[in-house]
């Protein structure tokens, strides 16, 4: 592999990583409104244990 190609690939990788770091920070502790992630006991489970 020639040095010119290697330097071009490395410069591209560096540019992509710098651009990926830019943006709004993600708040990982924020509540999720997706109903599929809410852990509630099913009604059938409560009746099955009686």
Describe the protein's architecture and organization.
With 50 residues, the chain is mainly α. The chain is 50% helix and 0% strand. It is built from two helices and no strands. The protein has helices spanning 3-21, 43-48. The protein is elongated, with a radius of gyration of 25 Å. It starts with a helix and ends with a helix. The mean pLDDT is 75.
Chain-wise SSE layout:
Layout: H1 3-21, H2 43-48
Number of helices: 2
The sequence of SSEs as H and E is HH
Assembly form of the protein:
single chain
Biggest sheet details:
none
What is the percent of helical residues?
40-55%
Poorly predicted segments:
none
Strand percentage: under 5%
Structural class: mainly alpha
Principal-axes shape call: elongated
Give the CA-CA distance, first to last residue.
Answer: 71 Å
Cα radius of gyration in angstroms: 25 Å
- Say how many strands there are: 0
Average pLDDT, to the nearest integer?
Answer: 75
Protein traits:
50 residues; 2 helices; elongated; mainly alpha
Summarize the structure.
Helix content is about 50%, strand content about 0%.
């Amino acid at each position: 592999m020639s040095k010119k190609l290697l330097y071009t690939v490395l410069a591209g990788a560096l540019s992509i990583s710098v651009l990926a770091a830019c943006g709004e920070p993600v708040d990982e502790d924020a509540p999720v409104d997706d109903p599929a992630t809410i852990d509630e006991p099913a009604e059938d489970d409560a009746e099955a244990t009686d």
